[in-house]
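User: Before I run my own analysis I want an independent prediction to cross-check against. Here's the chain; please return only the structure tokens and, at the end, one sentence I can use as a sanity check.
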Amino acid sequence: MNKFSHFSTKNLQDTMNRIKVIFITGSSRSGTTLLDRILGQVPGFFSLGEVFYIWERGILQNQLCGCGKPFRDCEFWSQVIDEFSAYHSTDFLDILQLQREVTRIRNIPYFIFPSLRPKSFQLKLHKYTVMLATLYRTIANVSNASILIDSSKFAPHGFVLKQIPYLDLFVIHIMRDSRGVVYSLQRKKVRPEIYWRTEYMPRAETWLKGTRVWLIDNFLAHILRITTKNSRLLRYEKFVQNPRSVIEDLINWIGLPNPSILNPFHRERLIKLRVNHTVSGNPVRFVTGPVEIKEDVEWITKMSWFKKVMIGVLTKPLGNHITWSK
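Assistant: Structure tokens:
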């Protein structure tokens, strides 16, 4: 029997201090990892990458941590997993299976309307929530950070985080022009974290598939945002054009004093990225040293006018920020 077998999330709330978690959601190729990395340079903040994939890509597959070491060889994550395992003796394959059963898109109505939950789902949700609560508490203890950043994007994961009473959840929905996302989704990008073979990031090989990905991801992110107390929409274009100002505004929104002093930028667009311990995400998580933030605008000249018009028309209702001059 593990130490938390008799605990509920209420017990956890009563016995532990609260943790602030920034959850970044949105579509792939929208700058979520970049935003995670930049926020992680703020004193007291800690970048986690895509925590949703910790069981599969981190623990079971042993992909590279952001520090460049295989996950199980990373000193930080080794300590986290050792402390987590002291409370939960469950096999990690079982945890992964439980995650897959709980964090399905079709279960979102159960998160929004708890009265609809079948008893079987409620039991699985409770079990997985307690495990996830232990994981975040352990990460906070090992990192000694006051604010954790999770850029998993996947909205059902965000809904599960909302079930943990002692988490103060801040949801940032970052939305990029749909045409830029669709163009980027057609690029071949190597996943360096899979170091034992060559593998590429998931792609949408046609513009229709890319448009569908953008619509689904941002629709689910929209639902999460409007049902979360502390949430906001951030335009990718505004972020990369004025990164220093945007980060300072986010620090102020989260409630920290002296946001201008905490701001990690050396100039409006220049920042120095430190080694991190992110779980998964865009290859930018392996970049360290001085980085100048620039908007990815290749799609403006490389994408055909037909695709621009069609993607713009199909996504206009949700992406009302689209400007037809691009």
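Sanity check: The first strand starts at residue 19 and ends at 26.
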